[in-house]
Amino acid sequence: MHDKNDNKYITVFINMPTKIKDNESIQPLLNLLEFGKISFSVLDKIPFIYKVSPKIKSLKKQFIEIQNQSSILTLPDQFNELFSNEGWICYGALNQSILEESVSLGLDNKIEEAKLLLINSIDEIFIDLVLKKCGIRKHFKLRVELLKLLKIDYLEERYHACIPLLLALIDGLANDISAHIGFFAEKSDLELFDSITAHKTGLPFLKILMNSARKNTTTEKIKIPYRNGILHGRDLNFANKEVASKCWWALASLIEWADEKALNKQPKPPESFQTILKQHQQTRELSKRIGLWKPRPIQPKDYWIVQTLETVVDDSPEFTLLEFLNHWKNKHWGKLPPLLIHNIGKHLGKASQEIKSDYQKSELLNFKIIALEDYTASSTRILTNIQYIKNEGIKDTEINITLNYADSTTGSPELRGEKNGRWYVLQLSLGDILFS
User: Fold this and answer.
1) pLDDT digit string (tens) for 395-430?
2) CATH architecture of 296-434
3) Which residues are CB-neighbours of 192 under 8 A, at least 6 positions away?
4) 211 within 8 A of 94, measured Cβ to Cβ
């Protein structure tokens, strides 16, 4: 028996683009660039038109600005073309400088230099970020303690220990997230609509590569984390940094896949040229407002001693933080989810259960703001003293808590004060208290 939604599902995947740049979220901008290129090449042959209509000249200027920034749209495809056969794929959170530099080296035929760059990018900072992401995500947080041990093994070059367990954890995570179908299972379908990470040239391709049949026992050094060869004891010379780094890379990609899978993106009607241009104009106007923004003056320490919910401005990040901490202290679990950015769009009841599970292990006793810094036009960091009980011990620590001003329906960053936005706590900044 087929589910009534099967036809819709099939339609979406039949139309999957062959290139990442053809994704629904990217293609309209490329169409605009192509349309503009043709249109302005015609107008350039009759230059007096710009004098007759200054507005057209302004449109050309906007077009050139977009065009100058458009090269980044092709980088994910170039990355996968250069490195996917080597066991690296482009994923949504890939550091932009790493992406740009590796592609640049690859296009310059400096493949070995590019590979070394990618291997060495998997360092302690990279792994710590992965651990923090895992600590606030369902299924992933169950495995954090094991991942911490694997971090030690990796940094101390015990690759024989960390590689098999990383492969096992990746398989188990995919199993939990996708209704009992493991990452390496033949039936696993990792491709998602409008995704960089889960494009068929990305994580789905990596799964096929890592799941290659390895029928013969060999002592030849391998560079790909072949799951079957390693776990079934046929690839005996697997314990090296390159294979281990690619396992961490696959785990980072799996985090992105899990996040995107939860969003369940579906195709949208194509946008018109006028709509795209209007959106760009709105972006330009927002950029101007951001350019005019200035952080608030830093207040002296004694200023914060007397500040409470009653004295701070109610649409400020410090108000949201004090409200959040008060609810945590009073164990008002149902009032915490709407103040956390990662809960935007989540079912309140389900989110409240997750919050209670995470936060009740750290009983908040007292708190006070020590200092505040408006870090960007949409984020503020607040140095806060937190006193709490955990594992039957009283702890007293200072921690920087980040708050983001974001769209209340999408979670996208907004310039502070813009309509449809509000302040949210970034739970990731509380990871050392909640998940250590």
Assistant:
1) 999 999 999 999 888 888 888 988 889 999 999 899
2) Roll (3.10)
3) 198, 257, 260, 261, 265
4) no
- One-letter amino acid at 335 equals K
Q: Are 251 and 178 in contact (CB under 8 A)?
A: no
258 contacts 275 by C-beta, under 8 angstroms: no
Nearest Cα residue to 369 out of 317, 329, 406: 317
Question: CA–CA separation, 106 vs 74, rounded Å?
Answer: 14
The alpha carbon of 218 is separated from its chain's Cα centroid by a whole number of angstroms, namely 38
Spatial distance between the Cα atoms of 304 and 409, rounded to a whole number of angstroms: 32
Cα(115)–Cα(264) distance, rounded to whole angstroms?
Answer: 33
Phi, psi values for residue 16, rounded to 5°: -60, 130
- Measured distance CA(128)–CA(124) in Å, rounded: 6
Cβ neighbors of 180 (< 8 A, separation 6 or more) are none
Task: State how far the Cα of 242 lies from the Cα of 117, in Å rounded to an integer.
Answer: 11
In what helix (H) or strand (E) does residue 69 lie, and over which residues does it extend? helix 54-69
CB 225 within 8 A of CB 250: yes
For residue 425, the SS3 value is: strand
In this structure, the number of other CB atoms found within 10 A of the CB of residue 207 comes to 24
Q: Where are the domains of the chain?
A: 73-263, 296-434
H or E element that contains 328: helix 317-329
Query: How distant, in Å, are the alpha carbons of 289, 407, 422, 430 from that of 380?
Result: 18, 16, 13, 14
- Side chain identity at residue 148, one-letter code: K
Instruction: Annotate 386-399 with b (16+ C-beta within 10 A) or e (fewer).
Output: bebeeeeeeeeeeb
- Pair 102, 118: CB distance under 8 Å: yes
Cβ-Cβ contacts under 8 Å for 184 (sequence gap 6 or more) = 171, 174, 207, 210, 211, 227, 228
Residue pLDDT, tens place only, 60-90: 566 555 555 556 678 999 999 999 999 999 9
